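Translate sequence into structure tokens.
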Amino acid sequence: MMVKSTLDNDEAEGVEYRSAGELVQVLVNNCVGRVDNHILSFYAPLMARLEKTKSTPTKVEFIDTIACGMFYNPLLFVGMLEAQGWLQGILLLWDELVASGAMKRRKDKKMSLLGLSTLLKVLGLAAVRVGVRCRCWTFLQ
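Result follows.
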């Protein structure tokens, strides 16, 4: 898969990583209900790259891609994030990016609203077990 090979490539440029994230967004948004069995294979390389990246624009694009996953199928997606031990780290990073003002593009704000509001609607606040007050919620107000 082109996305996986790009995300696994330590020599790729930041723009290539961001483009790979955008491709995942396109796949998830246009294949609703048809890629449930492939969600982990789409997101595992993205999460591995997210742990390595220092680029704020790349982190923001990856959070946008994660928001797409939440909108795609929140129960499946959050279950995957929890099973892989990624949920708390993602929510903390999301909070950090919002607090720093990095989520300033219209797209970033829309994706955050889409992902977080879907998460709240389907799972309720009890499903988010971060243990800290998350500035993401004030971002939504």
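Note: The radius of gyration is 14 Å.
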